[in-house]
Amino acid sequence: MQLYQVNPSIMTKTVFYLSILALLISCSASQKQEEISSAISEDSLLTKVQYQTFQYFWDNAEPTSGLAPERTHMDGVYPQNDKHVVTTGGSGFGLMAILVGIERGFITRQQGFERFSHIVHYLDTADRFHGAWPHWLNGETGKVQPFSPKDDGGDLVESAFLIQGLLTVREYFKNGSEEEKALAAKIDKLWREVEWSWYTNGKDVLYWHWSPNHNWEMNFPVGGYNECLIMYVLAAASPTYPIIPEVYHKGWARSGAIKTDRTFYNLETVLDHYEHSDDPVGPLFWAHYSYLGLDPRNLKDQYGGYWKLNQNHALIHYRYCVDNPKGYEGYGENCWGLTSSYSIQGYAGHQPTHDLGVISPTAALSSFPYTPEESMKFLKFIYSPERDSLIGKYGPYDAFSFSSNWYLPHYLAIDQGPIPVMIENYRTGLLWKLFMGAPEVQQGLKKLGFTY
Asked: What's the 3-state SS for 347-380?
């Protein structure tokens, strides 16, 4: 029998390489586990902020109407005289947030259905003006609560935000049980009663307000670009009181003047955010309110592409905060986002050309579909333990400023509502699928020359 001898140097090298291989496998497995843990952590954090902001509309609802309070102080304490003031536009966002709650398992489908039924019955009996609801209602009585001295009638923009939510709920329940189909039919009735064409005042533009006491004295024709695109889409989509396409093209698009080739922070702004102004972009809520249901992915018309419009809008805000030309404390890649919110000087519109050093959490969080990496950085930043004073029962408080050592433990419905909805659109596209599935919406978009 022949014996073979192994060269010790070869044996040593073999053991060395096997050790290296084992270490690489171990590191790879460890890295993979860390990636999985990170993904789980990020996923849980998204669910957490959705749950908290959903609760603003569920746990915090005005009891008689079921609608959203205009504002709430920390942990559900109401400002003086505001307990029964409900907001119609913010409630439209809340309807969509409740759908998120059903799909995420925060509540049951039956619980959601019962709340929706309560709300729809209330809206059917509340004050309306040529089919449009006012900006504010008294939740107890259903009567108009004036938003300003002459703003005591129909508010077509807030009504459009409400209808956006109602149609999404209709689409969710329309093929359900018999009682769910009946709810969808009641929503359809409310939608058909809005007299969109009345709000043109006989001109080729939509007006924001009409009052039985002050007629058209508010005199606010709505021309783009701002947060109101959804109003024009719904007005064109109406099966009963539609506008003609010229109202969109001449009024909203200003006969093509809405288009622009202006850039800011090396990004195209696509549409002119301000007529006769040097401001390149507006506050970030303009990229949110109309797009809770209106899906901007691949949405285009003759004036621009709406995904690029909104993504660039969010990225411009991000790049501006990273650049931080005014040197505000805290601004950077983890802390960014300007929109209309509370501020040290009262309620204010925040944007790069009107920056008061105030960060509004809804700006970055509601931009998740457009800027997922940048928005996740902000989400982790604000939910870190050392910043727990900025978080309350219903999620991040409305606004804060490190430069002024200031934060306000208050909530606004119109700021909390887009957060769970836009995060869900980022995660699953749920609300986009539902709203865009409404046949009238597709017809309205086609009528105005959109492709999708």
From this structure: CECCECCECCCCECHHHHHCCCCCCHHHHHHHHH
